[in-house]
Amino acid sequence: MVTTKTIVKKLDKTSSNYLTSAKANTQGEEAVLKAISLMTKEEQTLAKKFHSIVKENAPMLVPRTWYGMPAYSNADGKVVCFFQNGSKFKTRYSTIGFQEAANLDNGYIWPVAFAVLKLEASEQEKIIKLVKQAIVV
Question: How far apart are CA 30 and CA 128, in angstroms?
């Protein structure tokens, strides 16, 4: 199990030292909240819900921004999941996506991105299930 003492392979650009996950979490949290604050109100609502889901159900993932989007990395520094606001690419929906580090494999084909217009209770349950599955080793 990953703890807050686990070293995250993320370089501190000012000192070239590795950051501890506690420091990475703090810095990443700030960066993610800043990225969310730049979104439209509707996107902020979705991104905040997704952020809460990840924090509550996969606390070992480290928040960060990835291409300016809220994202969450494993202890190896690899992005597991992310939130892409629709206005970033001028699409009519936002996207919740999972990267290769997510453990969502299911046979020879499986979805890794989901269009999101709202996150009501039933959609939140689906995302919670995916986030939990993504971090299973």
Answer: 23
